[in-house]
Prior knowledge:
Layout: H1 2-8, E1 13-20, E2 39-45, E3 48-54, E4 70-74, H2 77-91, E5 94-99, E6 105-114, E7 120-129, E8 133-135
Antiparallel strand pairs: 1-2, 1-4, 2-3, 4-8, 5-6, 6-7
Helix pairs in contact: 1-2
Amino acid sequence: WLRDALAELDPSCEKITLIANPVANVQSAQRGVPAKPLFRIQGTGVFGSTEMDYPNDREVLETFECSRSVSFRYPIDLHIYISRTLRALQNSTKTSFRLEQEGLLSFQFLVPVPSPRGGMSDSFIEFRCLSLDDEVAQ
């Protein structure tokens, strides 16, 4: 799901916003009031915006922990960095995506690599980025 989400972002994005809400705060939509997303990736650029919401589904998010609602914006360059993560993501056997309460975004990929003695072994590739600012999501 992460590879598809990152590929959906328009290259003209000026900023990327990541929004997370505690499971307890995510409620069903009632009488025209939209439900808060558990996790949302939002890209905003010259040609409009894209929003992708993710439910509390173990097939999508194996583990999801969030103690307070947060919204972090990342710079235009993040899209460039994210596009560089796609190669590692495509080759990874496991992926960890963390968004710390201070806005530190971390991607960690478990990637098989050739072993010096023949065969394959696992290595980690990690990418990190700090947010522009943080705010409590409304």
